[in-house]
Structures are given as structure tokens and as C-alpha cells.
């Protein structure tokens, strides 16, 4: 029992280290594209959720969210981060929910399909889209009245703008997660299952 807890803590520490590297080494976790960034860090959270389960996926996501929140004050990743990610609901909650959604969907599907990797694909897509929709949805809710200041666009144009971001950022992020997360997670899960 103690060795299982130790193993879990070591793996959590490993994922935390990856999240830190992705946040602080340029172009490893974020690829800048104008006012927003194409994010790759969500893939680490999804892999953690597949390997350790939804709760630990949520913890890893929460660590990313906390870093996002702190960075908005000291070292923002984009011009909008100083305005949007200083709100903990926007910075932390969507990241936590990546782990919850990806982990729960994977748990639900893994016994219903022949190969675990097949269950990981929709789980990764839904986990990724959860982040995108929650971040952009909350931007719309909380910052709609400030859209002319933040985005230099008319308030009426904010929703089409955010829907465009879902297409240009959210969809590629979800596709990347659907391809990369199973490629990383399946061999790790097989290795851990053999050692158990």
C-alpha cells in the first residue's frame, strides 16, 4: 500500500516537473500566435488523467492553472493574460476540469472498447475542448463589456471572434491531444499494469 502511494507521488511530481518546464521554457508549452497562444500543456494534463485517474489529472491541471494565474501577474504569456488570467476562475478552473473530463471519459470508455488507445481519443478531445470552451466562455461572460478595450473589437463582434478562436486554436489543440496523448499514455499504462 505504501509503495503504491509513493509511486503515485513520484508520478505526480514527474508530471508537475513537466508542467513547470512547459510553462517556463519558451515554445515548449505555448506557441505564440498573435494575441493568443496555441497551448500544448493540456496534453500533459490529459496524459496524467489517463495514467493516474481523474482526481490526479485534476491536481496536475490545477498546478498548471495556478502557474497560469501567478504568471498573469509576473510573466504573462500573452498581452491578454494580464487581464483575463488574473481571474482564478478563468485561469484555474478550466485546467482542473481537463483532468476531470478526460479521466472520467477514459474510465467510462476503456472497458467498452477493445484497445485503450481508442478510448483515449474521445477522452483527449473532450478534455482539450473543455479547457477551450471554459476559458473562452468565461472570457465572454466576464469580459464582454470590456471587449473594445481588450480586443479592440465591437461588443457584438466578441462572440464571433471567440468562435473563430475555437476554430483556429481549440480544434488544432484537440486534434493534437487526440494524436499525442494516446501515443504517450498507452505505453506508460501498459508498463504500469505489468508492474502492478
Automatic annotation (TrEMBL):
Gene3D superfamilies per record: 1.10.1760.20
Record keyword Magnesium present: no
Stretches that traverse the bilayer: 57-74, 80-106, 118-141, 161-184
InterPro entries noted in UniProt: ECF_trnsprt_substrate-spec
Alphabetical list of Pfam families matching this protein: ECF_trnsprt (PF12822)
Coiled-coil stretches: none
Keyword annotations from UniProtKB, A to Z: Membrane, Transmembrane, Transmembrane helix
Record GO terms (molecular function): transmembrane transporter activity
UniProt-recorded name of the protein: Integral membrane protein
Native species: Liquorilactobacillus ghanensis DSM 18630
Lineage of producing organism: Bacteria, Bacillati, Bacillota, Bacilli, Lactobacillales
